[in-house]
Amino acid sequence: MRQRIDRVALDGGTALCYASIGAGRPLVYVMGWLSHLERSWELPAERALYEGFAQGCRLVRYDRAGSGLSPAADRPASLAFELEQLAAVAATLDEPFDLMGTSMGAPVAVAWAAAHPDTVRRLVLYGGWARGDDLSPPGVRDHVLGLVEAHWGLGSDVLTDIFAPDADRSTRAELARYQRACSSAATARELLALSYELDVTDRLDQVRAPTLVVHRTGDRAAPVAQAEALAAGIDGARLVLLPGRSHLPYAGDRDELVRVVRRFLGLPVGRRSGLTARQREVAGLVSQGLTNREIATRLGIDERSAEGHVERIRLRLGFRSRAQVAAWWRDQMG
């Protein structure tokens, strides 16, 4: 898939960057705490998540002000400003859309669905909460906020361990670097503080869209009790609990999350661990012992593309090494 990046102006002239992937009815995706449209597309695990959602629809996601490609605005972080940014993206669409909020994006999505019921076809909330004040004790929050502000490098490492404990060491290191590339320490601290301040408990009963609440049972960043509160407060909401400890949607069993969401949205659900034709071709070359450079030469692509194909194959199949991919291919071929 190809990602298309565009810009929309907020009041005051600040540009907000958003990306579109796929084609079909829109699925607007409200990102969590920090994001970067380009770097996330280069991270194989995260890209595979978005490609999974975008099959048969148009996935639209955006970098909030001060994060990723969107420049900072001369505005303090607040729920009202979050809704203004979502409104700017929604204005580029000419039809009702499915809305998915993850982590900090979940309470923002709730607030939008409550205030604009005619715009939301279906609502999905992953890893979210109703009241940010209940996420952790005040002392823990103050410690994390202080760490992010004073030692952004160490703070990103600590938060990555909380957000993605199921990821291997190299992936966690990459995620920590990714967070630091998304924003300054000051912006990261301000947005994290907003996460703790968001409270949409008084808006839950105003949501009219069919709603799916998805949460991992061992989520260390958002207690499962918050998912239960969201589902209990929204009339008719369905709660699905998945095993795992990772807060990030693309860490852990990403494929199962994609299947659950697609089924709720009425999109076709593919087979588990299915590979594309090109991925099967690359897997066959891996089984022959070819390096990424040799694969690139054989297929007439650059080495980085070959590396991305191999990584997405490994992630989709749930393997940790090229040797496992090769063994799987040999089994497939009998």
From TrEMBL:
Top-level taxon in the UniProt lineage: Bacteria
Residues in coiled coil: none
GO biological process assignments: regulation of DNA-templated transcription
GO molecular function: catalytic activity; DNA binding
Entry-linked SMART domains: HTH_LUXR
PROSITE patterns listed in its UniProt record: HTH_LUXR_2
InterPro entries: AB_hydrolase, AB_hydrolase_1, AB_hydrolase_fold, Sig_transdc_resp-reg_C-effctor, Tscrpt_reg_LuxR_C, WH-like_DNA-bd_sf
Protein name (database record): Regulatory protein, luxR family
